[in-house]
Amino acid sequence: MNALQFFASALSKAWFLAVVMVVPLHEAAAANPWGADYFPDIVLTTQDGSKVRFYNDLVKGKNVAVNVIYTSCKDECPLETARMAEVQRLLGDRMGKDIFFLSISIDPEKDTPKVLKAYADKFGVGPGWLFLTGKKEDIKVLTRKLGLSRASDAFSKDGHASSLMLGNDPNGQWMRNSAVDNPRFLAATIANFFGWQDVVPMASYTQARPLDIGRAQFTFESRCASCHTVGGGDRIGPDLSQVTARRNPAWIARYLKEPDKVRAEGDPTAMQLYARYPQVRMPNLRLGDEDVAVLIAYLDAQGKAVGKAKGAVAADRERLPEPGRS
Fold first, then answer.
1. Bridge partner list, 65
2. How many C-beta atoms surround the C-beta of residue 272 within 10 A?
3. Inter-residue contact 99 to 32 (CB < 8 Å)
4. To 5 degrees, how large is the angle CA 40–CA 48–CA 110?
5. CA 150, CA 128: separation in Å to the nearest integer?
6. Rounded distance, CA 251 to CA 267, Å?
7. How does residue 297 score in pLDDT terms, banded at 50, 70 and 90?
């Protein structure tokens, strides 16, 4: 086989892996086409400085969820990692036992173990989730084999697709998902793919309350809630309660729409926020003008509701009798 034939064969295999690599169990038991003969067993370094081999140490015999990131990313990576952090919390004690998360840096020259460690700590990464770096050429081969790289990636703003590969190595089954989906949807997708049964019975659909969620709430929960709360305290980013009272509405609108440009201009407020919440840049969420408008209206309404609730609690405390008096 010449070099061109080998490259074409590898691309074909990676494409099939990325689209739908779900193999019937009886075929997987006979021969796993996505095992040791397919994946390169390259040496990687974890955020804690440990040396590991990709297939034999991280994938063999395990259930895994694999994505690619880089810590200086100005686009989807922070959102992608925040979503996976939410999924990690939803999966609870299955992490590190029934499933392992693997986030591979595509900028290994900058993303040293120390840098990856700081990035992981910022997102509250727990057991069962490794951030990995290694030799650049090895990682290029690996991401191509995983179906997590495309020929157009070098020309895209983010440099890679925001994809998550789910792999069940014992059965030879793999499937690609979006890494920026709703965390609850992602957690449910993972549970279904691996065939997990809930130990606590779920409520019947007949007991479900009517779905009542507007566009503004949906936009906040799908694009913002992984990093921010409204009245629940700082998370990865600042608490957004009263933000419409603290910031100029025009500034909020522009920052929501193009935070990367605002930072590039050296805007003092944007730079202050980045200094306070380092390692995690507000990503460009590709929000349209209408999305921005409804999101600001939602933050304003929610902020006022939180302020009113806090005022009521404070008033109740003032009315309580002093200790020892009735």
1. 101, 166
2. 10
3. no
4. 70
5. 28
6. 10
7. confident
pLDDT of residue 287: 80
Mean pLDDT of 225-237: 78
CA distance 244 to 276: 19
- Which structure tokens are listed for 90? 């939803």
Instruction: Give the tokens for residue 187.
Output: 């957690």
| Residue in 141, 143, 13, 17 with CA at minimum distance from that of residue 69 | 143
For the stretch 129-165, what's the b/e string if a residue is b when 16 or more beta carbons lie within 10 angstroms of its beta carbon? bbbbbbeeeebeebbbbbbbbbeeeeeeebbbbbbbb
Give me the residues paired with residue 100 across strands: 64
- Residue 102: the pLDDT is 97
**Scanning the structure block, which residue is given the tokens 């050429």?**
137
pLDDT tens-digit map of 171-222: 999 998 888 888 888 999 999 999 997 644 444 545 545 545 677 776 777 6
Determine the Cα–Cα distance for residues 146 and 176; give it in Å rounded to an integer: 10
| Chain position carrying tokens 């440099």 | 159
Q: State mean pLDDT over 135-160.
A: 73
